[in-house]
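ok here's Molybdopterin synthase sulfur carrier subunit, seq below lol
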Amino acid sequence: MIQVKYFGMIAEATSKEGEEVSVSGKPFSEVLSEISSKYNLGDLSYQVAVNKKLVSNPADLQLNEGDEIAFLPPFSGG
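and the structure came out like this:
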């Protein structure tokens, strides 16, 4: 299992702040796609962090038991 956390407008869209998800050997891109489809996140803009590090290319990532994924709203500078 991995921990998935939702912040800002993503938390509002999912109506939850987090959940546990079974990865069972799935690639990261498939897990991301499943979560996006489950909560209809396709229209939202967000960034993803794995173990508190922003991910720019999720296709190259392999998830491990105990990892943490965070769906983050867009950042604005200042």
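fwiw Residues 3 and 20 are 5 Å apart (CA to CA). kinda neat tbh
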